[in-house]
Amino acid sequence: MTDTDEPAPAGTGQEAAPLLEVRDLRVEFRTRDGIAKAVNGVSYRVAAGQTLAVLGESGSGKSVTAQAVMGILDSPPGFVTGGEVLFQGRDLLTLGREERRKVRGAKMAMIFQDALSSLNPVLSVGAQLGEMFQVHEGMSRKEARGRSVELMERVGIPAARARVGDYPHQFSGGMRQRIMIAMALALAPDLIIADEPTTALDVTVQAQVMDLLAELQREYRMGLILITHDLGVVADVADTIAVMYAGRIVETAPVHQLYKAPAHPYTRGLLESIPRLDHKGQELYAIKGLPPNLTAIPPGCPFNPRCPLARDICVTDRPPLYDVGPGRASACHFWKETLDGAR
Amino acid sequence: MPEPLEPYESYAAREAIGHGDGGSAALAIGEAESLERVPGAGPPGGEPAGKPRSLWSDAWHDLRRNPVFVLSALVIVFLVLIAIWPQLIASGNPYRADLAKAQQGAEPGHPFGFDTQGRDVYTRVVYGARASITVGVCATTGAALLGSLLGGLAGFFGSWWDGLLSRIADIFFGIPVILGGLVFLSVITSSTVWPVVGFIVLLGWPQISRIARGAVVTAKQNDYVQAARALGAGNGRLLLRHITPNAVAPVIVVATIALGTYIALEATLSYLGAGLKPPTVSWGIDISAASTYIRNAPHMLLWPAGALSITVLAFIMLGDAVRDALDPKLR
Amino acid sequence: MAPDDRPDGTPGVLADPGRPALGEPVLEIRDLVKHYPLTRGVLFKKQIGAVKAVDGVSFDLRKGETLGIVGESGCGKSTLAKMLVGLERPTSGQIRYQGQDIATLSGRALKAVRRNIQMVFQDPYTSLNPRMTVGDIIGEPYEIHPEAAPKGDRRKKVQDLLDVVGLNPEYINRYPHQFSGGQRQRIGIARGLALRPEIIVADEPVSALDVSVQAQVVNLLEALQDEFDLSYVFIAHDLSVVRHISDRVAVMYLGRLAETGTDEQIYEHPTHPYTQALLSAVPVPDPEAREHRERILLTGDVPSPADPPSGCRFRTRCWKAQPLCAEVVPPLEVPEAFREEGPARHPSACHFAEERHVVPGE
Fold first, then answer.
1. How, if at all, do strands A90-91 and A191-195 pair?
2. What is the separation of C-alpha C140 from the centre of its chain, rounded to a whole number of angstroms?
3. Residues of B in contact with C179 (CB under 8 A)
4. For the whole model, what pTM was predicted?
5. Does residue C306 sit at the A interface (CB-CB below 8 Å)?
6. Chain B touching partners, 3 or more CB pairs below 8 A
7. What is the pLDDT of residues A67-108, one digit of tens each?
8. How many CB pairs (< 8 A) connect B and C?
9. Over the stretch B258-277, which tens digit does the pLDDT of each residue have?
């Protein structure tokens, strides 16, 4: 398992020093069924004010990458076995536990899919928001409460002043997700990682929450990493997309180009396999087979057993991330053919 | 230069229904939500991936490799054997007294020494296992059967029957065990183990019934029960085929741990004079008799007490190991 | 009065004049209601209200068609599914199958009907008994209905079913935890097919699956429909999947149907504001179409079904709401304005129905 390909990291922002740069990150889970290689050399960059979407199915390593970046990986069984996470020029992986904790929350924050289980059920939302200010900024209880109300108003919770004492279960799913966003914003972080932030919500509420997140990001010029499996959600807000498969980035591209002309057969397959809202269509294209078992990732290109283009070379040689255009890369030996086929 | 590719149009036409995933023995890590839920690809070094493995056989696979389980199981097998055939390792007679040797320490042929009446402590400790194991096994079986029957039915049928049973269980929970034992057992003069067994079952079943009720309520909510119901399955089938096999694991775990505590309870009651009575040979009785002489002849107390501790610990550790193996969160 | 007309004289959905019937109705749902009582007190229970999960739903399912039911969480679509397969008893209303009201059946008669109406569940992890082998799971329908297959044939039949749903028949002795989510869903489908039902009610059958696997299962369901002449009630929150698989679509909101019609009528010519908002909110995997798309952002959340708004249920979130909407329940019928021939001519429960294009067409 040696691959020395030093791919162009996903994401733009090469001009200025990026806010976050992940280099060749590797994570494995040591389970009793063997070692699951969850992340196998992931590199990407996010600049301030920019949105990078990490797209992948469950088990692709998209959430594990984020957890490693945030430093909240369950360890054991998860272990970071290589790579760097450069945040504002510092490698977070070399920091001590205490320093790491200071970065988390104040400089980078995370929003989770399930707001109900991420909030403490026995504390009022005001107390939970206020605690951030009291602990990190040394505010008095009263000041903190005032700031909490302001923040709740900012994320669009109606009657914030009256509801600041309410408990999480008294809010609807969409409102809880807004509170999560408020908590993430509380200390004005430079980077927000949102892991499937709207997956648990209904479509009409989904749109509201996504809009709020995009608006706040612009307003505060934060970097945003949006982790999702939903090709639709990504299309709305991302600048750049990184598609992950079996713990690797297989394609990165600016959002418009990825949808117009994917350069990796997996991306293309995903795009073709989702039903369309605007026409009924014939039989759906289905990518054959199943995602690989992470304890036994196929040699060569991990997608080769499911790929309609697979040739001998795909089984023997792992494709590096080829530069396939400005700001674009694809880990496919036949990226040219894929791109041509798509046009 | 790679060989020419087929035209891209054929891409969408391939693999219509995706029969592809049927052929390979793919046990994908991919679709599981978290790595903890992953049904991994066969145990490393074990049988080849894809062989039928029930959850029980998986659990057994784990248990065999767990030193805590192996050790406690060996101790328990040994205890059961000497409870049935104490002659295997003790050739003497537990009742034979030689007052001349009262309270004497170890000597050749009598490794544990003698008690106040000059009986061989080693032989008495070995013969004492029978009472403890009998009480433990019988009381646990009784409490588990009664508790899981009542609790399971309450969980399954719910409504007023559930409410009534829970209140009755609460009443039994409220009885102080030792006080209840002293009052209840002191009026009984039988020298067999059965009154003690009966008393422990009476106080032990509510605990099991709560666990069984909870397990049945959890199992009942699963979609596979709904699915069977939608097929037209009756209550009998639902209970026997779908709910019981999925609810039995926590009951087994709690019952195993309870077995250890019941043995300790029997010894406590015997120590207080309310449990087993001479001439039954029991660790509790011997500890009680020895406690007065602890300064002069501590060996009389330490050997039976040590045997009791090891026995209780073995059952509790076994229960812990079984729980770990059956814990669905690890699966 | 047509057989399905409401007591108040408004025509029901049967009177749907938009289209000729695709086939004979196999299932007729009339004014179906399910209220869950809310009680207070332990010993002496007092009813203090009711959760109106389903509150007056009528539709037909025709032979060989797929009826899609879409709605957000809490709209009552899962309760509706459970009533159709007899897992919940309706508070009132009828479910007519082959001329008899199955809502009133019990015992042997209900069991006989169940053979013909089967269900596919959402969660492939909880819908298969982990202690049973795949063969036992798929073969269980034959044990419950021994008349469906003689004992000697059962193993063969189970293997055939595995083959039909695209699994290796040799997997018959394996346990569910040895399969992935998509494969488990195929096992669930095979169980649903075992008794050769006429109707399959699928409650979010693909929403728990990954995108690449979702397409496989959707295709499988479509292929099986042709092969076994099945009628589907396909319940989902994903509007794209519903459009793909459905012949007709019913949009549900807070226990009632808001709009019904063919997939084209609903998606290209929606006349109910809720349908329009729902369609406009769906994220489309196409950044260019996105930019030219009009979006209707609804404010607020779905009200509680325990205390639904008077009149039109959607009025609290509707930008068109008038005082009339709070007073009069809009009937589900073809609105006045669209009585002439045209794609907008389909039932819509809105006083102020008007056509609006929200899905970017080609």
1. unpaired
2. 25
3. 27, 39
4. 0.79
5. no
6. A, C
7. 888 888 887 788 888 888 888 888 888 888 888 888 887 888
8. 125
9. 888 888 888 888 888 887 87
The CATH number assigned to the domain with range B55-330 reads: 1.10.3720.10
Residue of B nearest to A61 (CA): B30
- Specify whether the backbone of B265 is left (phi greater than 0), alpha (psi in -120 to 50) or beta: alpha
- Kindly report, residue by residue over A221-274, the tens digit of the pLDDT: 889 999 988 888 888 788 899 999 999 999 999 988 888 889 999 999 988 888
Segment C134-147, tens digit of pLDDT: 999 999 999 999 88
Chain B residues bordering chain A (beta-carbon distance below 8 Å): 2-3, 5, 8, 10-12, 14-18, 20-21, 24, 26-33, 35, 38, 40-44, 62
Q: Which of A293, A303, A336 to mutate to test the interface with B (most CBs of B within 10 A)?
A: A293
Task: Please judge whether C241 and A235 are an interchain contact, meaning their C-beta atoms are less than 8 angstroms apart.
Answer: no
Of C140, C183, C219, the CB nearest to B21: C183
Residue A194 DSSP SS3? strand
Interface-testing mutation among B6, B35, B324, with chain A (most A C-beta atoms within 10 A): B35
The secondary structure of chain C, three-state, reads: CCCCCCCCCCCCHHHCCCCCCCCCEEEEEEEEEEEEEEEECCCCCEEEEEEEEEEEEEEEEECCCEEEEECCCCCCHHHHHHHHCCCCCCCEEEEEECCEEHHHCCHHHHHHHHCCEEEECCCCCCCCCCCCCHHHHHHHHHHHCHHHCCHHHHHHHHHHHHHHCCCCHHHHHCCHHHCCHHHHHHHHHHHHHCCCCCEEEEECCCCCCCHHHHHHHHHHHHHHHHHHCCEEEEEECCHHHHHHHCCEEEEEECCEEEEEEEHHHHHHCCCCHHHHHHHHHCCCCCHHHHHCCCCCCCCCCCCCCCCCCCCCCCHHHCCCCCHHHHHCCCCCECCHHHCCCCCCCCCECCCCCCCCCCCCCC
Per the CB < 8 A criterion, the answer to whether A246 and A39 are in contact is no
Tell me which chain B residues have a C-beta less than 8 angstroms from the C-beta of C188.
227
In this structure, what token pair is assigned to residue C258?
């808001």
Q: What does the domain layout of chain B look like in residue ranges?
A: 1-51, 55-330
**CB-nearest partner of C287 from A175, A235, A291:** A235
Largest CA distance in chain B: 104
Interface of C with A in 117-136 (CB under 8 A): none
Write out pLDDT tens, residues B174-214.
Answer: 888 888 888 888 787 777 888 888 988 988 889 899 999 99
Cβ–Cβ contact A202 with C under 8 A: yes
Chain B residues within 8 A of C86 when measuring between CB atoms: 230
How do residues B291-310 score in pLDDT, each as one tens digit? 888 788 788 888 888 988 99
Q: pLDDT for C219-268, tens place per residue?
A: 999 999 998 889 999 999 889 899 999 999 999 999 999 999 998 899 98
The answer to whether C282 contacts A203, with C-beta atoms less than 8 Å apart, is yes
Instruction: Please give, rounded to a whole number of angstroms, the shortest distance from the CA of A220 to a CA of chain B.
Output: 33
Per the document, the length of chain A is 343
Looking at chain A, which residue has its C-alpha nearest residue C268? A278
| C139 and C186 Cβ atoms separated by less than 8 Å | no
* DSSP assignment of B182-198: HHHHHT----SSHHHHH
Residue type, C290: R
Residues of chain A contacting C245 with CB distance shorter than 8 Å: 275
User: Does residue A292 contact residue B28 with C-beta atoms inside 8 Å?
Assistant: yes
Cβ-based neighbours of C338, under 8 Å, separated by 6 or more: C271, C344, C345, C346, C353, C355
How remote is the C-alpha of C5 from its chain's centroid? 22
- In the structure encoding, which two tokens stand for residue C125, read together? 């992890």
Whether the Cβ atoms of residue C30 and residue C12 lie closer than 8 Å to each other:
yes
The verdict on A294 touching B (C-beta cutoff 8 Å) is: yes
